[in-house]
Amino acid sequence: MSSSGLLEDLVEALRCLPGVGPKSAQRMALHLLQRDRDAARRLGSTLVDAMDRVHHCEQCRIFTENTLCRWCSDPARVSSQLCIVESPADVLAIDRATDFRGKFFLLLGHLSPLDGIGPKDLGLDLLESRLETGGVDEITLATNPTVEGQATARYIGDIAARHGVTVMQIARGVPVGSELEFADGGTLAVAFSHRTRLS
Amino acid sequence: MSSSGLLEDLVEALRCLPGVGPKSAQRMALHLLQRDRDAARRLGSTLVDAMDRVHHCEQCRIFTENTLCRWCSDPARVSSQLCIVESPADVLAIDRATDFRGKFFLLLGHLSPLDGIGPKDLGLDLLESRLETGGVDEITLATNPTVEGQATARYIGDIAARHGVTVMQIARGVPVGSELEFADGGTLAVAFSHRTRLS
Ligand SMILES: [Zn+2]
Ligand SMILES: [Zn+2]
């Protein structure tokens, strides 16, 4: 890259961002140089800082720069209830949308033997030792409603049951506000077999 | 942002990128933390480096970290021909698509009295002193085919004419490979009035 220079290096470097191709990388680089150098410098140093200092919470694997994340270190949250999710975005979504006030446990993926992702990669040894220690009465499985997510949920449910912990799973069914005719067959089948009495 | 932490700072900082809203900023931050920390560190340091060291070429205002850009410093390019463009992306596009082998001059915008953008903001004093010095025989106006771009081209054409420099303008007309019925009326009118004899 010697002949091309720093602008081209920047365009190339921006392509590490998901969904950013050569054209939008170029547009981003020129925009920052022309209009927003201070914000770009701030982004640059924040990137380096975050990559160096953000790691996983010791208890739940959520990203944090501290030993414990803000959920685990929040004394107002109930430690006896644990919600198990696949991705950090799920934590934020559940925190925003529901009234769950327990703690989380983050898998950062799902079981996938073909990709070599086993229980240890999901931190299930950490989860198991936490269940062993006691203090957790109930776990709620909130993995994705996919084949892999469900297999992972079943696997974790078995571990929890062995430790005498109540196992819950978030409901699957037709999404609120959606139209029935657009629901896929699998969702409809689940919604139908999980039907509840109205009154 | 004390309670939210470094991950949230990173999500916020990513929003300086054009076209990046809160959701994609979050997706980018999590992707980098989970999968590409080295690339993210490299992006971070390249950003800071580029913002600190990239400035405008002394001769043509193209972005470079050197005194002269790679076009101005290329002895293989003809100095007597100058192509005038509005944006850095135009330089790259013309360089890629055409056989123009002269040098460029970058306006970084167009005349816009209402926004307070006058000749000096486009570097036209620099351009004029370059024409005065001599050595430029011909300029090609390649500003955008918009009202503002055309007004800017006319203004620059007048300056060049005063210095006895030949003024060319890139052709306007229907885009190659497009279908006539989808061309807008203005383009069609220009294409028609600029029609040329075929043989
Ligand atoms: Zn935690
Ligand atoms: Zn230059």
TrEMBL record, chains A, B:
A zinc finger (C4-type) spans 57-72. GO terms for molecular function: DNA binding; zinc ion binding. SUPFAM superfamilies: Recombination protein RecR. Keywords: DNA damage, DNA recombination, DNA repair, Metal-binding, Zinc, Zinc-finger. Residues 80-175 form the Toprim domain. GO terms for biological process: DNA recombination; DNA repair. It comes from the Bacteria. SMART domains: TOPRIM. May play a role in DNA repair. It seems to be involved in an RecBC-independent recombinational process of DNA repair. It may act with RecF and RecO. PANTHER family: RECOMBINATION PROTEIN RECR. HAMAP family: RecR. Belongs to the RecR family. This is Recombination protein RecR. It comes from Granulosicoccus antarcticus IMCC3135.
